[in-house]
Amino acid sequence: xxxxxxxxxxxxxxxxxxxxxxxxxxxxxxxxxxxxxxxxxxxxxxxxxxxxxxxxxxxxxxxxxxxxxxxxxxxxxxxxxxxxxxxxxxxxxxxxxxxxxxxxxxxxxxxxxxxxxxxxxxxxxxxxxxxxxxxxxxxxxxxxxxxxxxxxxxxxxxxxxxxxxxxxxxxxxxxxxxxxxxxxxxxxxxxxxxxxxxxxxxxxxxxxxxxxxxxxxxxxxxxxxxxxxxxxxxxxxxxxxxxxxxxxxxxxxxxxxxxxxxxxxxxxxxxxxxxxxxxxxxxxxxxxxxxxxxxxxxxxxxxxxxxxxxxxxxxxxxxxxxxxxxxxxxxxxxxxxxxxxxxxxxxxxxxxxxxxxxxxxxxxxxxxxxxxxxxxxxxxxxxxxxxxxxxxxxxxxxxxxxxxxx
Length: 406
Known about the structure:
By secondary structure, the chain is of the alpha/beta class. 39% of the residues lie in helices and 15% in strands. The protein folds into 2 domains: 6-146, 2-Layer Sandwich (Enolase-like, domain 1); 152-388, Enolase-like C-terminal domain (TIM Barrel), CATH 3.20.20. The protein has helices at 14-19, 22-30, 82-97, 105-115, 124-144, 148-151, 174-186, 207-221, 237-250, 265-274, 288-296, 312-325, 339-351, 398-402, and strands spanning 6-7, 48-55, 61-67, 72-77, 159-166, 191-195, 226-230, 255-257, 279-281, 302-303, 329-330, 358-360, 373-374, 383-385, 395-397. The strands form 3 sheets. Strands 5, 6, 7, 8, 9, 10, 11, 12 and 14 form a 9-stranded mixed beta sheet that branches. Strands 1-15-13 form a 3-stranded antiparallel beta sheet. The chain is globular.
């Protein structure tokens, strides 16, 4: 059977449709474009029949979960090491999901997480879980005819303001970074964040270069455009404080991200205490327990869960509740232009403050993925619309996607 080539939210051959229970047929009908209906009665029973990992030549990893009723869910995992994460899914997680009810998302999350806990909870394990978990939520939305944001309790806006996340600052000249930032502003962007991409191996490698880059960017974009700086864990505590003060006082930054090593919570707390500008972190945290420590020990102002890294939507919702409980700003880390972006749009439209722009990687080589999803997720005038359809709200053209498989 080959009805999976293109997913139009929900597609079944007529013969199989007629064999479904009446209430399930109503669900299928509700997913036809322009015919929204609410499910009457209990949800239908489904079974996961396949979990597929598609490694793409643009460095992305798509996860596809198929069911016995022809409903397909799409997920995405972090691109940190797509082959390693795909192997984790295939060798450790797939057997825990196949044959199970895909709507039992929290139970399946527990099965995946705690059964593989000793294999590592900071990296490949939660990133692998994320791909499956997002796909399961996509299935849940398609079965109920609800978008993710509806399932989360309702979006607070129909579009999300995004900032241009511009990386490569360590290797580029100040003029090159300024040119990229100015181009983004010309395209409607109202906030720019410069990423230095230093990492902890090159601590305090060239602080003078960092200052020169950000000063040149501020000159190029003007005073009205919001500005952020991401040290990518490249500073010592003393340098982070010294430069942070100059960044906030002379350049007016509103977002200071991961100034010190990701494992140095005590050092991060010192930076937070010394500065007025909000300090952000969370790209390197993967579970609610790590975010609890990031908040209570490092005392960051902004928490940055990444749904394709922090074990998916199921855990992301718990982290959002934690951030709200501690009255911290939620500004997720997000650099994936397709499934990851769609999931994050629903997430931020429900839980993030409207006045805070969300991350959007304008230089990503993965932008090619907009060719295989509908609608394409491209910013206009500094905003991205939240998809309206069931689940993620995307149609995925698997025939086109297959052309990108390695």
